[in-house]
Amino acid sequence: MELANLAWPAVAALPRDTPVVIPIAALEQHGHHLPLFTDSLLLGEVVRRAKESVAERVLFAPLTWLGNSDHHLGFAGTLSAPPRTYLDLLAGLADNFVQHGFRRVVFVNGHGGNDVPGRQAVFELRQRYRQRDDLLFLLGTYWNLGAKPWESDPSLHQREMGHACEWETSMILRLAPNLVGDFRSTAPVEPGKAFAPAIRGWITEDRSESGHIGWPHLASSEKGEHLFRVFAADVTSLLERVICWDGKSWEG
């Protein structure tokens, strides 16, 4: 069900255990060869495919295209909500649905920069409603839901999501090839491990002059279709677990 297409009485009539999905992405630089709207385009397609299995059992809010992209602000066109502002935005959206009586809120994320403030948002939401044991707040980044797409397609070189990389370039090639520039001549940019296992603060220019991270020259439309199928299946699986949650248990 699409929230944007419903009148308010239809929303009010829904069972309050109906999961609410809030897709969150970004508008930011994606190297020399991909559009600024890459994350939002890709998440939109992943969610569209996931809807095919759960369409009448889940309420989908419109995709939130503004994300936390401060680390990309050195590149023209990037728009960003600073981390604290973004955290409060997500918590406020969830608050709205709780106020309307809904008990299961799932942020489906499509941008790496949203991960940390998104995790903090669901943590703070649980503290805010600590007297209730019937609420579920989740954040799931679509490429981190358990799949290992290279196992079912050995032609994939990367083992994790980069930025304007083999994975994202392949998916845009599958979805909107007319928006892809010259990716074949891009030089690989190794992700690196920095000071791992410690976490280093960074901006994109610390890692990449061109803005991409990974191996975009290895991309193909065929790889993109495979990635879409794998990631959409992961999102669908997560939503099925939310639908089946008994409303009390720790495990889902």
Tell me what you see in this structure.
- This protein has 252 residues and is of the alpha/beta class.
- Helix content is 38%, strand content 8%.
- It is built from eight helices and four strands; from the N terminus they run αβαβαβαβαααα.
- Strand 1, helix 2 and strand 2 form a beta-alpha-beta unit.
User: What CATH architecture label applies?
Assistant: 3-Layer(aba) Sandwich
Q: What multimeric state do the chains show? A: single chain
- What proportion of the residues is helical, as a percent range? 25-40%
Domains, number: 1
Identify low-pLDDT runs.
Answer: none
Biggest sheet record: 4 strands, parallel
- β-strand number: 4
- CATH superfamily descriptor: Creatininase
The helix/strand class is alpha/beta
**Beta content:** 5-15%
The tally of helices reads 8
Mean pLDDT: 97
The shape is globular
Strand order of the largest sheet: 2-1-3-4
The CATH C-level class name: Alpha Beta
Query: Termini, distance in Å?
Result: 22 Å
- CATH topology label: Rossmann fold
Radius of gyration: 18 Å
Q: Please write the string of helix (H) and strand (E) elements.
A: HEHEHEHEHHHH
